[in-house]
Amino acid sequence: xxxxxxxxxxxxxxxxxxxxxxxxxxxxxxxxxxxxxxxxxxxxxxxxxxxxxxxxxxxxxxxxxxxxxxxxxxxxxxxxxxxxxxxxxxxxxxxxxxxxxxxxxxxxxxxxxxxxxxxxxxxxxxxxxxxxxxxxxxxxxxxxxxxxxxxxxxxxxxxxxxxxxxxxxxxxxxxxxxxxxxxxxxxxxxxxxxxxxxxxxxxxxxxxxxxxxxxxxxxxxxxxxxxxxxxxxxxxxxxxxxxxxxxxxxxxxxxxxxxxxxxxxxxxxxxxxxxxxxxxxxxxxxxxxxxxxxxxxxxxxxxxxxxxxxxxxxxxxxxxxxxxxxxxxxxxxxxxxxxxxxxxxxxxxxxxxxxxxxxxxxxxxxxxxxxxxxxxxxxxxxxxxxxxxxxxxxxxxxxxxxxxxxxxxxxxxxxxxxxxxxxxxxxxxxxxxxxxxxxxxxxxxxxxxxxxxxxxxxxxxxxxxxxxxxxxxxxxxxxxxxxxxxxxxxxxxxxxxxxxxxxxx
Length: 505
Prior knowledge:
By secondary structure, the chain is α/β, with parallel strands linked by helices. It has 17 helices and 22 strands.
């Protein structure tokens, strides 16, 4: 068994219970407990910007590796590249704009340039990190961050429960739980929640935004019967567990209600699935087993599939990477706010469609050529060439979003005039979380329009909590497209626009 010596750099204070007493790990953090410092478990950081080489000089050992987490963007250790040991970055939550979000986290990791990058959450965003040039990007399931728990023999004292947060962040979860009756919903501490999972006939899980969350591992570790939302294969869930064998899944509120009814009527089947899921977790994904997998990869470069990400083939190209990341962030946030999205991808790059396919509550219709009429009204229509507008604008539902990717600068005025005929106007989107506003902008990579209602109807932004929609002028649209372009990129873009116009028949 590998027992390497680790220096952990952490941006926030750590309670005394969070320190390792074995002597193999020392945590450098702000305001550590005096007891931890006196016992040699901690080193105090006086600033969020510091030279890690000075920290290493005060250690009682030469570290085998230095680890840190991409969660607080203001945490800026220097000198990582000069260390004589591997540097390991744990990737945090990239499923909403808070805590940096996907694009900011990628930029943060590029600045620090660690040797290894891994996530314990869903791996569906790892292909973006790999395409951005980060080294050794891989996935280890969430049990590495869980405190081990052995469930006692328990009688079923609950029927259907949910344990966890119902904050404004969890829009779909709140929507779903409000549809259910006779369900015990509480927020409890970690151990109390685990105890309740073992005592319940059914434990409901609803992910934040179509991601593989900790609750999946917690419920299985506690021996509970898990009924979770059916997320996409790119999340890794079905690489680890089998639906109907280790856990059960639902696709919408109707299927959720049906499965609750079924398993309450057949408790022996729920108990069998719970036992099989618990055994699978303990045998394959215990914290000890996953910890050793981490060490073997860092020091011996040994890690088996699917943890290297072979299940996700999207990391092979960096085509239009920045455009794709900004668009993905915008669509992902809209999915967090809406229970479901119906999206038309009209003659856009297949790489963009591939990016979006991991959004579990977004139904994609991909049209590569004009194939006739479609039946649905779409909440979002994506196009990347202005000559597609007249054909597909009719598919946009009222208050829906029409997104034009990488428009030609010299045709933006004409583009606006075309869309105005269909009551579509350029807008800025932003979302509000915990009293903080986050812009949802494509920067220089595209323009977002909304199909407005006729006079007297519902106006943009009404009826969607947390989403703000502001109409903007043509002048501001052009400024946004130019603002984020370097001189070289701007020159190239204008030249291409001119050549495109000259070669039109």
